[in-house]
Amino acid sequence: MEGLGDGSASAAPPVSQWWQDSSRLFQHYLDKTTPHTTYRWIGTLVLASIYAFRVFYVQGFYIVSYGLGIYLLNLVIGFLSPLVDPELEPSDEPLLPTKGSDEFKPFIRRLPEFKFWYSFTKAFCVAFVMTFFSVFDVPVFWPILLCYWIVLFVLTMRRQIAHMIKYKYIPINLGKQKYGGKKSSASSSSTRAE
Fold first, then answer.
1. Do the beta carbons of residue 71 and residue 63 sit within 8 Å?
2. Cα–chain-centroid distance for residue 75?
3. How confident is the model at residue 123 (pLDDT cuts 50, 70, 90)?
4. pLDDT digits (tens, 9 = 90+) for 127-171
5. Domain boundaries defined on the chain
6. What is the C-alpha to C-alpha distance for residues 39 and 127, in angstroms, rounded to an integer?
7. Tally of CB atoms within 10 A around 39
8. CA–CA separation, 53 vs 181, rounded Å?
9. Could you write out the three-class secondary structure of the chain?
10. Residues in CB range of 102: below 8 A, 6 or more apart
């Protein structure tokens, strides 16, 4: 009886070892892509284009595309939202600066850019694989789904933009802020010297 259990136990470690090695290798290459934001997004746009071409070529899988669109909308909302929502967790002090004299507090996203990209890319990969199985090609009238998604997108983004205006935060980093203070003080000091 002991010999029977030993054979199955010895077969499991190589499979689990292979799984651990491959997931470690995948994580290694995923970590190497972290600083290359532009190239990651270009690759994702290429993948999204391939998916769009596949759906257009097959003329189906509209329900998969609709589900993908809803999931991506959820990701975008997470990307644009602050980590601590002032509406949900009221406190005595403001969590985001509301005046110019307030202390600077950086905007921390609920969904960081790398996780946003990774989830975005995984969603397109899963949706692309689903287009090869006819069980997911549910016949629907796609213009209704498209109109409903557009209405959902507009209403959701309007609410998100109103939240951004109310709590005065901008989730997009537009680069380092430049101040014009040095030029004005330099010109006034040169006039004093004369």
1. no
2. 5
3. very high
4. 999 999 999 999 999 999 999 999 999 999 999 988 888 877 777
5. 36-171
6. 22
7. 10
8. 52
9. CHHHHHHHHHHHHHHHHHHHHHHHHHHHHHHHCCCCHHHHHHHHHHHHHHHHHHHHHHCCCHHHHHHHHHHHHHHHHHHHCECCCCCCCCCCCCCCCCCCCCCCCCCCECCCHHHHHHHHHHHHHHHHHHCCCHHHCCCCCHHHHHHHHHHHHHHHHHHHHHHHHHHCCCCCCCCCCCCCHHHHHHHHHHHHHC
10. 94
Tokens 């997911």, residue located: 136
Residue carrying structure tokens 């809803």: 70
Q: Residue 49: what residue type?
A: S
Backbone angles phi, psi at 82, to 5 degrees: -75, 155
Which residues does 167 contact at the CB level (< 8 Å), separation at least 6?
82, 86, 96, 98
Tokens of 188: 């006034």
- The residues pairing with 82 across neighbouring beta strands, listed in sequence order, are 109
143 residue type, one letter: P
Distance CA 163, CA 86 (A): 10
Long-range residue pairs from 56-60, CB within 8 A, at least 24 positions apart, any chain: 58/131, 58/137, 60/131, 60/137
